[in-house]
Amino acid sequence: MDWIRGICTEDNCRIVDSCKVPKAWFAECLERFRIKNTRCKPLWLRSSESLEAEWGVHNVLYRLGIFRSRTKDVDLNFPQKWGWVYRMVWALTKWIAK
Fold it and tell me: What is the pLDDT of residues 52-64, one digit of tens each?
């Protein structure tokens, strides 16, 4: 899991090649990024469920071949614009994600 790379600023956390990370690892990865990036607002001001839903939807879209160039990495922002959409789509599609 040490190969997973995140680039964090105050308002954004980009997880590089997030499409390669299985959903079973999402929570642990986010916890590791929180420990390393104490000033990154998305990691601290958004719920774990919200972050995992956005990441999961990106992975599902990538697996389906939709917007591959935009869904290879996930950008977790604060504030989040489309949170309700991510949570709804994730609830309907998480069985597709590995």
Answer: 999 999 999 999 9
Record the pTM: 0.87
Going through the chain in order, the beta strands assigned E by DSSP cover 5-8, 12-16, 74-77
Nearest to 20 by CA among 67, 88, 53, 68: 68
Task: Give every CB contact of residue 93 below 8 A, 6+ residues apart in sequence.
Answer: 56, 57, 60
Q: Please count the other Cβ atoms lying within 10 Å of the Cβ belonging to residue 9.
A: 13
Q: In what order do the strands lie in the sheet with 12-16?
A: 5-8, 12-16, 74-77
Distance (Å, whole) CA 59 – CA 54: 9
Contact criterion met (CB below 8 Å) for 75 and 9: no
CB 81 within 8 A of CB 16: no
54 touches 80 (CB < 8 A): yes
Name the helix (H) or strand (E) containing 44: helix 41-45
Mapped onto helix, strand or coil, the DSSP state of residue 4 is coil
